[in-house]
Amino acid sequence: MTGGARSRLGLVWRLGAATTLIVTAFAMTGPVLAVLLQQAGRGTAFIGAFSMLPFLMVGLLTSLIPRVLARWGTVRTYRAGALLQLAGIAGYTLSDGIAVWTLSSVVCGTGAAAMWNTTEALLAEEAPPEMRGRVMGLYQTALGAALALGPFLPGLLRLQASAVLWLAVAMVAGCLLLAVTAPAHEPHAAARPHTGTLQALRAVPWLALLAFCGGVFEAGLGAVGAAHASASGMSLRSATTVAGAIGVGSFLFQYPAGWAADRYALRRVFTGAALALLAASIAMGFAARAPWLLWVCGLVWGGVGGALYTLAMVQVAHAFAGRATAGGAAAMITGYTWGGTLGPVASGSALEGGGAPGLAVLLALFALAALTAARRAAAAR
């Protein structure tokens, strides 16, 4: 490996570490904010709508980020996103007004759009093709560890809500420090033809649908699940562990998913993942009688939902090999974030209107959509 290649991979892992800090802060504060809203008398539909705001911003802005990357470059774009994230998390911490929290969610989502697209595009470009699945799986494992650890930190550290938010400020500040001290990056794809987000979506629509379903299950259910557990009588510390189960699943499944992507036809792997989500969705209908199913279903939702996104990213990196990868990565992020955007609203409304059985029916429909997309997606090999 040349010195330049080592430097580029070093930047990948540096920004990957910074992103892991951001995800830890997000996973820690999201359930806490949801529980605080529930304790203030807000319903699960409202909480779901509030939780969707960062994902809504990512979904709206992702198609623009490849142009920003082309103009500003990797590191500068990432730094701007980290600064916006710090401003957003400070808003949560310094105020308890819903208007300020709403604005903070919008700011956080804008920063996340810049950071997420930058890291994923950089990883897709720099990962060696013969081990792309494992590299991406390892990166997603780190993010899964952050998703797993974040919701448990309030209980493990015995923190009250205000202390949790200040800890999140410190984490995001650490992310910004890593970004500010990062070296510049010269992309391989500077002279390659540009692929826009819409063009990529038209080229691989079934992959985008799989990424969407992954977003629903991995990113769209944590806050609503925690609020439902709180409404069922659990304490803040216990309720947030329901979201933690989603993170634990994401952590455990990512590297095995990447390993499978390097060895088997992705259509087979996608199909197995969709069937697992369908089984977990049906099981959710019995959670009122067996509350332990909240954690079991969360484990599957986080693990398999996250795997869908990882596998879609691996496939899109293969599909757009030899071209600028930012557009292809943005297409998958668009699908995933719209899943994360609509998931909390749809699941919160289903839970409020039909209880656990109503949520089970909705999630089963999403799982069936994933199964349909899995059967249509082209094999990777």
Automatic annotation (TrEMBL):
Major facilitator superfamily (MFS) profile domain ranges (all copies): 1-381
InterPro entries in alphabetical order: MFS, MFS_dom, MFS_trans_sf
Alphabetical list of Pfam families matching this protein: MFS_1
Record's signal peptide: none
Any one GO molecular-function label of the UniProt entry: transmembrane transporter activity
Keywords: Membrane, Transmembrane, Transmembrane helix
Entry keyword annotation includes Transmembrane helix: yes
GO cellular component: plasma membrane
Transmembrane segments: 12-37, 43-65, 137-157, 163-182, 203-228, 234-253, 265-286, 292-312, 324-343, 355-374
UniProt name for this protein: MFS transporter
